Amino acid sequence: MPSAARTRRTSCFPVAAAALLAALDTAVPFALASAHVVHDAAGFQKLFNSCTGTFNWLYVDSKDLGYLHAGLYPLRDPGQDPDLPVWGDGRFEWASDRALPKDLFATSGGAVPYPNRVVAVQQGDPLSGTLEWQGFMPLAQHPQAINPSKGWIASWNNSPAPGWWAADGHGSYGPTHRVDTLVKRLEAFKASGKRFDFGNMVEIMADAGFTDLRGQEVLPLLLESLRGGALDDTTTQVVALMQSWLDAGSASWISGQAGLGAWRRDRDADGKYDHRQAVVLMDAWYPHLIDALLPQVTALDGGGTNPTSCSGLALQCRDGRDLRRHPPPGLQLAPRALHSLGQPAHVSTGRRDPVTAAVTFRS
User: Fold this and answer.
1) Same domain (yes/no): 190, 290
2) Distance of CA 247 to the CA centre of its chain
3) d(Cα 363, Cα 357) in Å, to the nearest integer?
4) Alpha carbons 343 and 285: distance in angstroms, whole number
5) How far is CA 49 from CA 22, 29, 137, 154, in A?
């Protein structure tokens, strides 16, 4: 299979390399798993730890439910702050690069290949296919789980464990994530006492894929804020419209109650969202909400004006505050943003296809 690779370097060492290998290194673990090398969740984790690509692996059998966040993760120099740049003179190299020769670029390149920076270390029986990677994070430090007490595991490219960092150029690991659309439905279904089966799991995944995350996680707080003040006729209609959107959801078939809605869905196949007015209003409202909210957040966030210190969608700040549930005193979450709806806004009313999410369960 064709592959492409690009390497960047400083005057001392390579600093980044990218390769498109179509996940070829998963072929061996899959082949071995098909050959009945894996007998339980722990064995599954050991085998798929051999994959160098970042993947969320889920396992289930009649006894075990397991999860592993696999990948080749560097062991950084203890003196490096991941939030800050460091000198590229060799003092802050990853553990896997510390043994590279100082004259690497003078003695390598062209007809002389560069030394291998990724060294596999066999674990146990050579036929088992289990590996660790020299100078990189060992299996014991990877996010993983076997038979969690809650009885299920959900993964949708969210943070695999509390405090786990996203890639350095990626900042979506906040208190709100699309996996919440799965989690709340799984929690509700488990609380209902019903038995998990393939049919209801597919329904949960489909419902989550059609859910507007802003509607599920942010809108309830906005409506609460609006109800805390005096409502004119227009605002009363807005609150009722948006609440009906939230009420018409998964809870109706899970527990016979209202809630777990905010769907962007066309179940009658007429080419329009079933709750089109609420969807259009959400799309028009939200940009103005962010424009009204973020200046207040940044002003309260240490008195600075850095717009990158808090994320608009996730409402997350660098100090870990969850502004949805614990807004600082003086934060005006909704009324000003609702008032700004008088300004023109681009609105999309088309349908959105569902997104596939990964869910594993035990009945």
Assistant:
1) yes
2) 26
3) 19
4) 10
5) 17, 9, 10, 19
User: Which helix or strand (DSSP H or E) is residue 121 part of?
Assistant: strand 120-122
In the chain, the number of structural domains is 2
Q: At what angle do helices 233-247 and 219-227 cross, to 10 degrees?
A: 150
Same domain, 45 and 183: no
What residues make up the domain containing 342?
179-361
Same domain, 356 and 212: yes
Burial 59-84 (b: 16+ CB within 10 A, else e): bbeeebbbbbbbbebeeeeeeeeeee
Write down the residue that tokens 């088992």 correspond to.
Answer: 128
245 and 293 both lie in a single domain: yes
> pLDDT digit of tens for each residue in the chain (363 aa)?
455 555 555 544 444 444 445 367 888 899 999 888 899 999 999 999 999 989 999 999 999 999 999 999 999 999 988 778 888 888 899 999 988 888 888 888 888 888 888 889 999 888 888 999 999 999 999 999 999 999 999 999 999 998 888 877 776 787 889 999 999 999 999 999 999 999 999 999 999 999 999 999 999 999 999 999 899 999 999 999 999 999 999 999 999 999 999 999 999 999 999 999 999 999 999 999 888 888 887 787 665 444 433 333 333 343 444 444 555 444 444 444 444 333 333 333 333 333 333 444 443
pTM of the entire structure?
A: 0.76
Q: Count Cα neighbours of 191 within 13 Å in the Cβ-side half-sphere.
A: 11
Scanning 127-275, the segments in alpha helix (DSSP H) are 179-192, 198-209, 213-217, 219-227, 233-247, 251-254
CA-CA distance, 166 to 269, in Å (whole number)? Answer: 38
| Chain centroid offset of residue 292 CA | 26
Q: How far apart are CA 190 and CA 207, in angstroms?
A: 16
Nearest Cα neighbor of 178 from 264, 299, 101 is: 264
